[in-house]
């Protein structure tokens, strides 16, 4: 009996200790994650200009109004376009560069720095660089095209609604490929050399070695790159806003820039909050399968 009471007291003490240590992260999570989400949803049910003392309750009106706005669906379509591009563009180019460099090219360390360096530059600086490059009269791209006799193909890269998104994607490709390259390159270097040598002994060509041996073993790296690409596509804001402000004529607008413009340009805080809730739901639908697969793979690896 005394032993039972001693064990019970020990468990109670450990429980209190665990609760004390958990209280800080739980409190921080509630204050900085749960509360802002609940507060944003509550604000989305009101009409408020940011200055009046009391918001007016309007229910789901902000959500309904957005569903009848072509501007909202255009921004959503742009987000989906960015999602497809970021999943395919920087990911494929990063994998290609990593595969080429993994073959033992001369000056490997120099190329690694060159490929990864753009990713270390802040988004605003990237936007400033590419705005100068895309300048329609004296920009670097236009100047180079004129010097090689292609001046007639020069465009107002950021001023033409039909090509502005492609111009932005070009700058994004230059900026983000370094991350995919680094992850894939690290993954290739972690593949056991014995697997590669065994495939070569069996007579596999370099392409077969990559496609049938290396690439399947890059699945963990691929999950990381694709997951980050999906997150980046949903939260995309800084480079679009810094380069075009969502223009011209809302052609390059995404949900995050529309939310910012609605809140601080039109002072419709409730409607901007509704956009953020839509964005949160859409991002959750897209990203949750990735989190599920990642958690499943972690569980499988622990079971092994």
UniProtKB/TrEMBL annotation:
Organism, scientific name: Rhizobium loti
Cellular component, GO, one term: plasma membrane
UniProt cross-references to CDD domains, sorted A to Z: TM_PBP2 (cd06261)
Coiled-coil boundaries: none
Protein name as catalogued: Carbohydrate ABC transporter membrane protein 1 (CUT1 family)
Similarity annotation: Belongs to the binding-protein-dependent transport system permease family.
Annotated membrane topology: Multi-pass membrane protein
Transmembrane spans: 20-38, 80-101, 113-133, 163-188, 209-231, 272-292
ABC transmembrane type-1 domain ranges (all copies): 76-288
BP-aspect Gene Ontology terms: transmembrane transport
Keywords: Cell membrane, Membrane, Transmembrane, Transmembrane helix, Transport
Locations listed in the record: Cell membrane
